[in-house]
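Tokens as discussed.
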């Protein structure tokens, strides 16, 4: 305990120095800035954890060592940032590949966790994988899952673990393959993951080892953009100082064939260029989406300052690697600007709002993940769906809707509003095709003459 207390104390001085110079890194390329900033934040997390531990803030043996609060984290972005750090750490071992396998369908996967502890757990597991490889090999980290759980798989081509050691691996004091190993890493990983409602398992043979972590999925926070919703004949403005990000957006828009919908895209690398274009060429901002980076090399303004200067808050999305920083998040919340994590830009789904076309259905649900799933299903099946987060938003548009349109309502709409009660109100307004879309057992609801049926949360088009 004295050693960890001393380490935590000694880290503080160099950490303070790093924090002082971090804001002056704006001249570095984006990828290097992200690595340095992430490393500083992780050192800070470790120091804070050690200090908390040595103040005696221990919960019990079934809880994580640190008292860090649970937060909602975008799992693919968290893993992607960590792997960037690990590739930098092991860049001298050119014979080992560290890969990230992510499906575009996992773009909006959030979990409730203690982020610094999860990063430390994953970092230690990846270290174990790298250290188990003699010569050439691979470590592949996969994020996958279903509607209820998010899974992280760490698979390596290392020497494997002896069968007789496997049952003891996650017990305190048990270690394998490390000189003077304490065995605390895997034990702590198990305790932490289980405290978040998840589970961890390990399988191994002579061809390598696979660690599987499963965590319950969480609803996405308000700052997150689950779907990039566009209108035909609209304009997209991309502002970023990194040419690779412009290429990602260009390839994304090309693959989605936005030009077929009359969408025009403008690319800029400085705020001055955006201001000049906006003042000289823009007559209305009703159909413009601004995708702005936050930190721009050599620029007098950051992305949010530009948004404020042009008063384009309602049309702007901040695309940044600093989406988890509290000051950036608070400023976005105050301005009403949502965010897309920069590393996830290539995965964000795109959908079109076509008001002139009669919708095939309406969904009223306060979960943005459900919106994303239904929107994707509608697009895949050639359907048009209107999506609403709450009853008030729907009522504002209800006069324009056919009374025979199918309406799917979540049972719990947030703020204490029950979907079945709102459904009765809609029935009295003349709507006939009303369904309760819920994860609860249909038998748990009384018979309601104003509801056609109780269905699940899955999209009706499959």
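Sequence:
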């Amino acid at each position: 305990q004295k050693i960890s207390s001393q380490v935590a104390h000694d880290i503080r001085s160099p950490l303070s120095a790093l924090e002082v110079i971090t804001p002056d890194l704006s001249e570095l390329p984006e990828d290097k800035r992200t690595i340095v900033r992430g490393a500083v934040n992780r050192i800070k997390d470790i120091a804070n954890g050690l200090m908390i531990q040595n103040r005696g803030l221990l919960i019990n043996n079934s809880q994580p060592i640190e008292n860090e609060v649970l937060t909602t984290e975008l799992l693919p972005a968290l893993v992607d940032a960590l792997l960037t750090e690990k590739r930098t750490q092991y860049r001298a071992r050119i014979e080992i590949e560290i890969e990230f396998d992510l499906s575009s369908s996992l773009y909006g996967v959030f979990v409730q966790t203690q982020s610094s502890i999860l990063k430390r757990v994953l970092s230690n597991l990846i270290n174990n994988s790298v250290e188990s490889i003699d010569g050439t090999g691979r470590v592949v980290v996969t994020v996958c899952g279903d509607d209820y759980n998010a899974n992280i798989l760490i698979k390596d081509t290392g020497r494997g673990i002896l069968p007789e050691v496997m049952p003891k691996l996650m017990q305190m004091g048990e270690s394998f393959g490390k000189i003077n190993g304490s065995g605390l890493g895997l034990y702590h990983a198990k305790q932490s993951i289980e405290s978040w409602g998840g589970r961890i398992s390990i399988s191994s043979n002579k061809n390598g080892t696979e660690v599987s972590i499963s965590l319950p999925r969480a609803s996405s926070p308000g700052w997150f953009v689950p779907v990039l919703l566009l209108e035909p004949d609209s304009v997209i403005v991309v502002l970023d100082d990194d040419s690779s990000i412009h290429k990602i957006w260009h390839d994304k828009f090309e693959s989605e064939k936005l030009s077929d919908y009359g969408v025009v895209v403008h690319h800029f690398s400085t705020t001055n260029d955006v201001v000049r274009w906006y003042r000289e060429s823009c007559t209305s901002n009703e159909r413009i989406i601004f995708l702005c980076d936050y930190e721009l090399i050599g620029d007098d303004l950051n992305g949010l300052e530009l948004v404020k200067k042009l008063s384009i808050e309602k049309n702007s999305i901040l695309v940044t690697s600093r989406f988890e920083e509290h000051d950036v998040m608070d400023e976005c919340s105050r301005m009403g600007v949502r965010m897309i994590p920069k590393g996830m830009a290539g995965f964000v789904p795109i959908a079109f709002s076509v008001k002139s076309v009669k919708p095939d259905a309406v969904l009223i649900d306060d979960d943005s993940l459900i919106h994303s799933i239904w929107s994707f299903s509608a697009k895949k099946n050639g359907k048009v769906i209107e999506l609403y987060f709450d009853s008030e938003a729907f009522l504002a548009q209800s006069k324009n809707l056919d009374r025979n349109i199918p309406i799917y309502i979540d049972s719990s709409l947030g703020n204490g509003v029950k979907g079945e009660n709102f459904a009765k109100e809609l029935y009295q307004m003349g709507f006939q095709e009303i369904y309760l879309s819920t994860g609860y057992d249909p038998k748990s609801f009384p018979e309601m003459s104003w509801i056609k049926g109780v269905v699940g949360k899955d999209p009706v088009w499959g």
